[in-house]
Design brief:
Blueprint lengths: L12 H8 L5 H10 L5 E4 L5 E6 H13 L7 E4 L2 E6 L3 H12 L7 E3 L5 E3 L7 E3 L4 E4 L20 E5 L11 H17 L24
Antiparallel strand pairs: 1-8, 2-4, 2-7, 3-4, 3-9, 5-6
Length: about 220
Amino acid sequence: MSSTHSDVSGVTSEGAVWLASAGTYPRSTLSLWAERPTAPLVLPCGTAFDVVNVPAVFGRRMLDRLWDDGPGSGPVAAYRGRILLFAALGTAQRLPSLLRWEEWGSAGEGREDGDGGTRRRYAIPPLLCHGRGDAVTVPALENDDTEHGETAGVLRPESRWVVAPDTGHPWLPGPEILLWAAVRAARSAVSGEVRISIFPPADQGAKVYDVSRRR
């Protein structure tokens, strides 16, 4: 994974307000964060955002496509080996329908095209879509660097921001954009595309993205 984008802003106060607006009691959420800024919280989906939950490696490929070839992304978090893509409301309902409509299947499978040949299909892993009635764990506003003592920076928290919310009204990708990114990511995996970076791969897990390009 070779992107060289950098998001150095972190979660701003406006971003925290936006996150808290997803809950039933935003002021209580903000008060809790003020007391414990290193504590992750569980917030409901379907009010301020939906979330598309993707395996980590595939999620990184999607982010590469969104930032290198597309419009960028909204906030993105990593949680227990998964990538959480914050998406526009309604995405959780619409994206699975689009995937079924496009008939994306396992790599190596195929179906006949109009000329009697076989058209290759691409592997898209199960995308877990969280909307109204669901909830996700939101990373802390700040990383607790003292938690691991001398190993801080080596052992990464199980929940952290990849692209942090930094505005009160972040742009969120919709289902069509995320479908496009997933298809591009699947095609690049099947084709064995290799991307080259002049930057050293010292900490691949820490790669984040340039929020100045957001819509």
